[in-house]
Amino acid sequence: IDISTLRAVTGGVTTIDAGFKNTSSCESAITFLDGEKGILRYRGYSIEELAKKSNFVEVSYLLIFGALPTCDELAKFKADIRKQSLVDEDIKKILDGFPKSAHPMGVLSALTSALTAFSPKSVDVDSPEEMYDAIVKIYAKLPVLASWAYRKEEGLPLEYGDNSLGYVENFLKMMFDLPNEVYKPNPVIIKALDKLLILHADHEQNCSTSTVRIAGSSHAGLFASISAGISALWGRLHGGANQAVIEMLEEIKEDGGGYEKYIAKAKDKNDPFRLMGFGHRVYKNFDPRANIIKVAAEEVLADLGIDDPVLDIARGLSTVALEDEYFKSRNLYPNVDFYSGIIYRALGIPIPMFTVMFALGRLPGWIAQWREMRLRKEPIGRPRQLYIGATGRPFIEKEER
Ligand code: ACO
């Protein structure tokens, strides 16, 4: 039955589900998530196994193209990325127009959208070859733009990477190389960051991914759709939570380290404060990514010999909150971002870059979801509404209002 007939038969009945709490927007074969059991799988592979045995580029390939790559496929993917790892020099002029105080997420979103202007053929791609070309371009260029967003803020000269290095090492080099000092990352840092990128790589129809799919459903290009996703990720209730968590933990530390006051504030319905890094729309027992990250955070701090009082506050806060009736009754558990900020900080990533790191990790998921949506020839996303405004009103002339 088509939608017009259905509406005619039912008298225009529609469903309303604010926040899409129980509405599937699409069919997808990319990521499986069971919020009750705390299961997360990419293309059928468990997140625990991927985090342990794979690496970010391989997982990216898996998400985007549907299967773990053979050695030849991986080598070709990497070679194609290498060829696209330069950015048009004119992009630097756009970057120059931003104030140093600009948040790197705003800069990243704008520069990603600007890429379209320098690659007009990537706009409305249809064939698998054109799609592949656009995918490789954005995958290669986003880390460059991300590192430039940081270097702009720091007033540092813009760098290109060293294509002989692995993904994470190359990104860190682009971020932290100084004109007179080559940055040599510790292998512990490389491994931890790679794991974090894998854990963030996809999460089915979350806010930013739904944004990418819906923007792309109008046949806006891949870069414009990813730019929209970056903007959606920026918010504190989504990717921006990782920055908000560390700022909250820092505030608690400055305030003497007592977290009970903050737990009370979070429970007070007259106070807008929320415990950042707690709660998830889908996970109702635990967030499997948070479990992996918690262990990784402990390991990284131990390996690097860092004694971070903020980690103690995080441990205490989560223990107390988990025993509290308010949090228990609402199934509020630490999410992926409760611990990620602690690791980022230990690895020397500056706070405003935390959400940018999330965007780098989520990129393969956004690409995979956009590609799937286009290959399935999904219709334009266009929800209906339940109108609650005034009924027909006669126009009143200015003088008579
Ligand atoms: N602190 C205190 N109370 C909370 C919190 C929190 N962090 N999260 C939810 N609640 C409460 C709500 O006030 C509400 O209580 P009520 O039933 O008495 O009104 C109840 O729990 C349900 O909350 P909703 O907002 O309806 O849950 P929703 O699924 O819409 O929101 C969200 C999920 C946005 C993640 C929410 O838990 C939140 O704001 N958390 C803090 C921000 C955060 O960490 N975001 C990152 C999410 S993970 C990610 O995007 C990668």
TrEMBL record:
The keyword Acyltransferase applies. Transmembrane segments: none annotated. Pathway: Carbohydrate metabolism; tricarboxylic acid cycle; isocitrate from oxaloacetate: step 1/2. The keyword Transport does not apply. PROSITE patterns: CITRATE_SYNTHASE. It comes from the Bacteria. InterPro entries: Citrate_synth-like_lrg_a-sub (IPR016142), Citrate_synth-like_sm_a-sub (IPR016143), Citrate_synthase (IPR002020), Citrate_synthase_AS (IPR019810), Citrate_synthase_bac-typ (IPR024176), Citrate_synthase_sf (IPR036969), Citrate_synthase_typ-I (IPR010953). Belongs to the citrate synthase family. This is Citrate synthase. It comes from Lutibacter holmesii. The lineage of its organism: Bacteria, Pseudomonadati, Bacteroidota, Flavobacteriia, Flavobacteriales.
